[in-house]
Amino acid sequence: MKVKVLVENAQQLVYRTLGMIVAVLSALFLLISFTIDDDPDIVYAIVILFVFLGVGLYFWQLGRKKRRTLKMFKKYVQILSTMEKRDLTQFAKILNIEESELHANLELLIKQKYFPYAHIDYDKNLLVVSKKVDDLDPTVQTTTVKCKSCGATSKMEVGKADQCGYCGSKI
């Protein structure tokens, strides 16, 4: 999962940068083309430049969307890792948003594999993370570890390598 977050972060930066460069260059070429009034194909040039401008703006918007999704994921993980019970009513109150909006956001994050081991239990209104070890055998020695990828804290058996229950990165 750490790789996914890094890749998504790089992608959003590339998309935004590429989009901005294409949009700015298109706007400059459009301005230059208005100064050339003796060219009979100026209309075609303007149409092509508007297409490039649209493509640039599309990439810029795509990068912004990925950035918002990453920020939302990091915020949700920080809050979820501190909650004993992953009750969505309480979670929505902490975020100061409607439960329906929280459900939609969590479904998006689950669908995009940000929470690879999670699903929403609508009957109990809980976020269920199947890799999270909440009820370990009391005779087993445990320790609390912090995931280097997402910052979530979780309990795990001492001396045992495992995956983060929130993002799936190796701990």
Classify the beta-strand content into a percent band.
5-15%
What structural category characterises the helix and strand content? Answer: mainly alpha
Q: Specify the overall morphology.
A: elongated
- Count of separate structural domains: 3
Number of strands: 4
Roughly how many Å is the radius of gyration? 23 Å
Order of helices and strands: HHHHEEEE
Number of helices: 4
Mean pLDDT: 78
In helices, the fraction of residues equals: 40-55%
Strand order of the largest sheet: 1-2
| Biggest sheet statistics | 2 strands, antiparallel
| Intertermini distance | 11 Å
Uncertain residue segments: 132-136
Task: Give keywords.
171 residues, mainly alpha, 3 domains, two-stranded antiparallel ribbon, elongated
Write the layout of secondary structure elements.
Blueprint: H1 2-35, H2 42-80, H3 88-95, H4 99-111, E1 118-121, E2 126-129, E3 142-146, E4 153-157
Antiparallel strand pairs: 1-2, 3-4
Helix pairs in contact: 1-2, 3-4
